[in-house]
Amino acid sequence: MPQSLRLGVLTGGGDCPGLNALIRGVVKRGVHEFGHEFVGIENGYMGLVEPELTRPLTEEDTRGILPKGGTILGTSNKANPFEYAVQENGKWVEKDLSDEVLRHAAELKLDGLIAIGGDGTLTIGHKLAQKGLKVVGCPKTIDNDLSGTDQTFGFDTARGICTEAIDRLHSTAEAHDRVMVVEIMGRHAGFLTLDSGIAGGADVILIPEIPYKVESIVEKIRRRGRRKRSFSIIAIAEGAYPAGGNVAVAEKAEDIPGRGVVRLGGAGKVCADLLAHHIEAEIRVTVLGHLQRGGTPSAADRVLATLYGCKVLDLVRDGQWDHMVALRNGKIVTAPLSESRKERRVDPSGETVRFAKSMGISFGD
Ligand code: F6P
């Protein structure tokens, strides 16, 4: 009979479709096969700093959550225990509360912690593991930019949403002879923009890995005009920027207590404003924003997340702490949590970009 343990589960960072499917997979296999008991930790690591944010996580809690977006545990992308924002004398200061996390985990009698999140959440998990906490991880992000795994769950759903958005923009662009700029999430990596741009038939794809030149885009739009195509679709990642220019920032890191990273936004408008000097056609900007992260997960994401949830219990069983589950060459495998720190980027000379270019899609370079 396998050993029954008491395990904490948390979801950290930005939410993405599939988190609930993963929680359900963990709890169902955990209860049925191992007799584990689970503690739900709310709002990411915040729930381990402030332990009143914990509650039993039972199979009953996971009923009916498979098709739901978001996370039943709540999440936070500000609750880094190593740089935790607290108010002192009316000012926000950052404190290292990681010892508190270890103390609370002991008080909660946790035999281990399952951290579900992106690079930030998993890197914190790795740092806590180095301090002695037994942590295993599951990678998620719509950006698909974690190097330890071929694909993160959440990406497939978001790619579908972006593709549908581009499809819808096509008909209205064509009706009005407009240039439609659609801004898609992706801070440093353009996977979402690249894939949905190809799937949606965008004319121009602008990604952070390839700084764009306005003249190249103008030339592409004019070329289309000469072929009597008087509308164009430009898919742009939020982290894309003009050569020699800067990434468009919506909110600086120092203005967001406890966040430590800038909030991007405005790349589409920057691009539209630059183009407006050169083309006669009307330009409209659509920012897909958090629509990309909400709602029901795709079948592929539900399956991947469920398998991650089941597999992570093998790591627990085998005492493979400080590791995460990963997808490599179609197989669910394990990788060190430290891998999550290495970010993955679109290869500008890789096959996908090369073939897209060969079909006439402009990358603005
Ligand atoms: O990392 C996922 C992501 O969706 C990024 O693409 C985006 O920049 C960020 O989260 C937005 O975060 P927030 O929810 O804090 O606006």
Overall morphology = elongated
Number of strands: 15
Please state the oligomeric state of the protein chains shown.
single chain
Number of helices: 10
Helix residue percentage: 25-40%
Q: What proportion of the residues form beta strands (DSSP E)?
A: 15-25%
Distance between the termini: 60 Å
Task: Report mean pLDDT, rounded to a whole number.
Answer: 96
What do you see in this structure?
The protein has 365 residues and is an alpha/beta fold. The chain is built from ten helices and 15 strands. It has helices at 19-34, 46-49, 98-107, 119-130, 155-176, 191-200, 214-226, 267-276, 299-317, 351-358; strands spanning 6-11, 37-41, 54-57, 84-88, 91-95, 112-117, 135-139, 179-184, 204-206, 232-237, 249-251, 263-264, 283-287, 323-328, 331-336. The chain has a seven-stranded mixed β-sheet with strand order 3-2-1-6-7-14-15, sandwiched between helices. A four-stranded parallel β-sheet has the order 9-10-8-13, sandwiched between helices. A two-stranded antiparallel sheet has the order 4-5. Helix 1 (19-34) packs across helix 9 (299-317). The radius of gyration is 22 Å and the shape is elongated. It starts with 5 loop residues before the first strand and ends in a 7-residue tail after the last helix. It binds 6-O-phosphono-beta-D-fructofuranose (F6P). Residues 14, 77, 118, 141-143, 185-187, 238, 263-264, 293 line the site of 6-O-phosphono-beta-D-fructofuranose.
